[in-house]
Amino acid sequence: MIPNIIIQLFIAIVYLLVQLGIFGKMILFDFAVPHLYIMFLIMLPMRINVPISLLIAFIYGALYDIFTTSASIGVGSFSAVLLIATRELWIVVSVPRIYYNSREDLNLKQLPFNQFLLFLLPILFIHQLSYYGMDAFGFSNIGTVLLHSIGGTIYTGLFCIMISIFFYSGRRS
Amino acid sequence: MERLVELLLRFKSGLLFLILQIISIVMMVQLNQHHNIILGNITQDISGEYQSKRDGFFAYFDLSAENQQLLYQNKRLKESYLSLRQELETRKNISPIKSAYRVIPDSLFPVHSFQFIPCQIVNNTVDRSYNFITINKGYRNGIKKGMGLISEDGVLGMVISVSEHYALAMSVLNKNFKLSAKINHENFFGSLVWKGGSPSYASLEYIPLHVNIRKGDTIITTGFSSIFPEGFMVGIIDDYEENSEDGFYEISVQLNTSIGSVYHAYAIANIRKNEIDSLENSIQVYQ
Q1: How many Å apart are CA B276 and CA B17, to the nearest integer?
Q2: Which superfamily is assigned to B178-267 in CATH?
């Protein structure tokens, strides 16, 4: 248990550092930013229960808010908590029961690629929409918010797929 | 209590989700100026909207008092209008040569002699040959027999009987009612009577045939009767015929006031009526 926590903590720190140091500066066409750090939350082990996952997301998002200069404080934690909530709901809908018996058994690394994509993209889009929506904090710039959200989803999605192929697909069939 | 704890535990994820989102929003609003300003504007809009809705709702309860206030305001305006108009007439009639003898307005003895008492109509008939109007003010409020009764739009009738809190007025729509009225642009006066029929039309009598009249001409009060001040709207000429037998027009006047739908009225008190009446009664000595 303790080694697992240390591993997750290490992964979280690496994601945050890579995000702040590299991905945060890889802005495409002035509107698309890859938010790769959320991959940590998406791939958070399902055996961690929901309230703890929510708390981890909140702290993780808040840490990102504190160290980044690209978004308003609170936006990261809001969208990270929403991401976990969406993940918990969407997983029931998008992943067929043949891949798991109970929620705790589900290992996202073992999902087939197309199934993983179907699971990944909607929650990514909801995260991006809430992130840019809360940053704008109104409906006056809804066009810009949508453009950033779609661009961010595609851009982040590409990196997430690459990361999942390289690091999370060891046992993927 | 146990049940409450059980319920909270069952929905602990949902509750925690809500709490964390609220904390995030509070952080956003507290720590970012942009969010703070937007939320401030939204709050201001909502509270402004709520305030105006609330004020609108409670204003309904004050409508009666506001109506009363408006009636009294109208009364003051009508009195000052009369005063100014009469003063203007007086000044117009003084030639520059006689300017040394110009009348200086005296606040103790105002030029106009009419006062308006706001009242409400509590009963009104328009479907009989002899119609009457009851108002909710009596001699306690200064109403006296012989006072005129007008609405915002024009003449209504004349007070004929007064009790402590109420007064009865003979309506314009009464066959016994006669009103001294004139055609505004011609200054020829006649007598306005109602001969029955439609409550919207009356007849103007004794206008000689040589007077140039047109349909649509305005009929106003003459001010000869000491009941109504001069210049109050009565109606407009709807139609007319020349009666060569007696040498007068038969003029149909469309009344300006829809007497059946009037609610607020003013009783007109001429503070010099007794003086005028006693002076006019002295004529009998010479007849």
Answers
A1: 88
A2: Rod shape-determining protein MreC, domain 2 (2.40.10.350)
